[in-house]
Amino acid sequence: MTSTDLGRPNPRQTRQRAEIRHAVEALASFATAQEVHDRLRHEGSGVGLATVYRTLQAMAGGGELDSIRNPDGQIAYRTCSPGHHHHLICRTCGRTVEVTVPQLEQLVRGMASDHGFARIDHEVEFFGVCTTCATA
Amino acid sequence: MTSTDLGRPNPRQTRQRAEIRHAVEALASFATAQEVHDRLRHEGSGVGLATVYRTLQAMAGGGELDSIRNPDGQIAYRTCSPGHHHHLICRTCGRTVEVTVPQLEQLVRGMASDHGFARIDHEVEFFGVCTTCATA
DNA sequence: CTTTGTGCAAAGGCTTTGCATGCTT
DNA sequence: AAGCATGCAAAGCCTTTGCACAAAG
Lengths: 136, 136
Description:
Distance between the termini of chain A: 48 Å
Structural class of chain A: alpha+beta
Helix content of chain A: 25-40%
Order of helices and strands of chain A: HEHHEEEEHEEH
CATH class of the largest domain in chain A: Mainly Alpha
Oligomer: homodimer
């Protein structure tokens, strides 16, 4: 693997890393590396695209960010509140709601063990259409 | 859009389309376009990769196939048994189990409407590790 | 001073598309 | 005969990677 190891215990504190973290936190819903990069560029930052990719990947590996695949296959990142939860994402406007569905966890665990599966990936995201967009 | 319109009502019946359908049905778990293409090649078929992509896309658009994004971001297709269900996929060996979780449907629907969301995308797939692979 | 992070550009991998030809209908 | 489907190759996109230089500890 390259120099930027995912999940490294103590990453160095750089201007770029700070800017990237700041940008991701500022973005409301999930943002792709390119979106983060665009935002930084518009803010006058000269951070390179590769650095954004590497940093987001590292932060996700370290648990600092959540990452999902959006329907287009791109990787989207987002700062998450602590604790386990899922996201309900509007397919049209991108509005995101964090939802906790305690019963879902049990259900999934139960269903999985019934079939002899373990370590289920819980990165489950739901894409739908919010009322605002549905009526528009 | 190109000639191959997705979800066209009555697609033409061609040798390629038949071979592709056959190949997808033969593949146990979800298969990517490239995997389908590989299989066809090994069977001696000269179907082009682009045709496989176009055809799978068309069949998925027509509801004939299910398509999901695997963790690597690739599009995987699979023939589905009728009725609503989800898939439990082993991240290691690819073994797939179709599961129906009736309670999940209610849960999701309820949660969604609580937040004013509709038309929830139910293409939920669970990736985990099956016992065979976990003990290996 | 040593090691990690950054930039740039090139390479990679998957998917889509343009265009001429062949096959269905 | 008319029009969609196919093949091939080229183009597109997103993401990763190699390498030299800059910065952090």
